[in-house]
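Deliverable D5.2: sample structural annotation.
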Amino acid sequence: MTTTRPASGRPLSIGEAARSAGISARMVRHYESLGLITGVARTDSGYRQYTEADVHTLHFIRRSRDLGFSMEEIAELLGLWHDRSRASSQVKRIAQQHINDLSERMAQMQAMQRSLQTLVSCCKGNDRPDCPILDDLAAGQAQHSSPKATRKSLSNK
């Protein structure tokens, strides 16, 4: 999606606001239902009317999502963004915790990759039906053991 700047001062429809923020109208409604976007004006017929400030908030949410923050973290960051008396240490704490979470998830994914690489290297990949990959999946070993234990159990097969 391309992003454009809203026309100054003119209320925007949900479609225009969404296009301007580079997200879908469905996501705008979702963010509103979560309380991330509040106080959106409506016409007499019930159509939403967004301001430049609302679009700016949508950009903030989109960028936060692009960086992988959870909806709860985004809500907290939005609150801090709107609070001019905040301490930057509060924002830094949230970002640092997110970095720690990302590091942990990356380590878990690297462990999964190593386990799968070990399993693939143990599979002959020929026309025979025996397959250490399927054997391991059926045994559920990867959930309960380290990659080293998985390699050891495969070498016993």
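Annotation notes: The first helix runs from residue 14 to 21. Residues 8 and 52 are 7 Å apart (CA to CA).
The annotation will be released with the project's public dataset once the embargo ends.
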